[in-house]
Amino acid sequence: KNIKKYFPIHKGLLNRTVGQVKAVDDVTLSIRKGETFGLVGESGCGKSTFGRVLLRLQSATGGEVLFKGQDIHSLGTKELRKLREEMQIIFQDPFGSLNPRFLVKDIIGEPLRIHRKMSPREVEARVVELMELVGLDASRRNRYPHEFSGGQRQRIGIARAIALNPQFIVADEAVSALDVSVQSQVINLLMKLQKELGLTFLFIAHGLNIVRHISDRVGVMYLGKLVEVAETEELFALPLHPYTAALLSAIPKPTPRRKQDRIVLQGDVPSPANPPSGCRFHTRCPIAQDRCRQQEPLLEEALPGRSVACHFPLLPPQQ
Ligand code: SF4
Ligand code: MG
Description:
ABC_transporter-like_CS; alpha/beta; single chain; Oligopep_ABC_C; Peptide ABC transporter substrate-binding protein; eight-stranded mixed β-sheet; binds iron/sulfur cluster; two-stranded antiparallel sheet; binds magnesium ion; ATP hydrolysis activity
């Protein structure tokens, strides 16, 4: 609820604070138990920061993160430890996120040793089980990460993330570094695990095409703001925000589109340290008007179950 994460900007020899980057600026969102919520936007829009704040890997500047009704930013050390078992993250880089000097069985088994105080034998048995669950050959558990391909390493990261039976997982660009063919294998694995283990996912990606297959609902972020939320198929069929339409029109599609879908973005994303007035998208929006430069649009329901932050959403013509 109303999540804000601001980073101070320091300058000069005295390291004075000269401003702040509003990486996440007042985002309210509910993720339903058992769903996959896809969160998309260009680099620097705040989606990773948002994911990290949800897990309390970073503290919020403002707002509340409610997990099963409890504000996780008010938890003490002991409760936080318990929370760490229930919420996990899968990182983008399957190369950088695995310690190269650890055997795979130790990487996957680490959370079990730390949180469950299992004996080495129990850890090993659970590691074998986890490796099989994510489609890895468990007989290779005594090897090092560099002996595995990118897709296999991502499976190792996934096995470690699910080791403690978490309920909520943030997958931060979990497939972005992989080849397209491997991407769909890993996405299929995540969907299988979700079904079998009853997981809830926040699936972060920069492109809409990656989230389409896996997500029940999708949220689009732009410069620290959530600008649209919808059921996945509805969003693809009818984007209401001009930015969503622009992201969609960047995906090659064989069938002809509606005229309003053909939006090409002009210019770069403005700096989050100095976002444009009013609607932050107005500097790049092809249909911006005076009101957009002055008044900030709020995320509001424009159609049943569809929220959009735009003064002039791309609604279908009235019957
Ligand atoms: Fe474009 Fe205005 Fe809507 Fe912002 S509020 S997306 S500038 S039409
Ligand atoms: Mg990121």
